Amino acid sequence: MLKDSMTPMERAMALSKGLDVDRLPCNPNIANGVARIYGCKISEFNTDGKTLAKAQIAAYRKFGYDGVRVFTDLFTWAEAMGAKVKLPEDYTADIVGPAIEDYKDVDRLKPADPYKDGRLPVHVEAMKYLVKELGDEVPCSGGIVGSFTNAFFLVGTERMTKLMFKDPEIVHKLCEVSLQTLINYAEVVIDCGLTVTISEPMSSCTVVSPKHFREFSLPYLKRLVEYITSKGKGVTMHICGKTDAIWEDVVSTRAAGFSIDNVVDLKKCKRTVGDKIKIMGNVDPASIMYLGTEKDVKKEVINCVKQAWDSPKGYVVMSGCSLPVETPFENIEAMMEITREIGYPIREERLEELLNEL
């Protein structure tokens, strides 16, 4: 079995300077599946930051991927602002109730304090521990959601959808107070020494129209990214589902990296915006990583690399979204193994050779 000859941090630094590296960066995006690797229950992440960090460290040590992120679920920030969240014993949290029952109460919402509200202090504890243990070896990040996505969780998806048509002013108020919460949290992430990743699933063209994205999400994404970059940190962003119609808008936020879903045409994304933003993706997390064989995983990784390895601003092998909790360890290892076998610089004949061997 091949071993890395560089740490993820060394690899990232070399790539940023145009120097030689041992392989492409690779991040399976394991998410709460790290609990299975560390041997704890997911619910422990909600009360103990060190457990959350140690589970992330255990997963990184096992597989050697290129980025470690403190992030448990999409609802952490809305919960800190008053939304009701269900916390199962051993599965990912889910939202069960809005922060306000009547949207006319929007002015009562206050930005969350990362050191006091909800589970945010647990995540802060995890970030401090994580960067202390791994900060010199692998890029570490703190995950957040975008303002638009958080706004959905403050009032409920159905109500938010109606408000976009009936009372856009309320939507902007929800996004504004969400933005302040997220800036507060991003400031702590940066102060802890980590970078920031943004997840904006409700901005997907599968969920809302490009028009509504540009009206209600994009202005707040730009302000959030602007704040983070003003602190000297780059930002990566993930939007689920179809995003073709808003690629140029994503670029306009000045994010450094864009993680795309497996339903997106990777080659088309490279051709359209690869000269403006780093592309990350897009191995299918469900049918390939969770349900597929090791051979399926390796074939899919090779196919993704064939499509995007020469993207001008860079390419990262990555799953199209967070992996299901029960994704087989063997498939995660297969993703890392084939990336190492491909090596760098990429040779087309090597890719065909590896495909023929499978």
UniProtKB/TrEMBL annotation:
- Superkingdom per UniProt: Bacteria
Q: Name one GO biological process term.
A: porphyrin-containing compound biosynthetic process
Enumerate the spans annotated as Uroporphyrinogen decarboxylase (URO-D) domain: 7-341
One short Pfam name that applies is URO-D
- Molecular function GO labels: uroporphyrinogen decarboxylase activity
Q: Which InterPro entries match?
A: Methanogen_methyltrans, UROD/MetE-like_sf, Uroporphyrinogen_deCOase
The protein depicted here goes by the name Uroporphyrinogen decarboxylase family protein
**Originating species:** Anaerosalibacter massiliensis
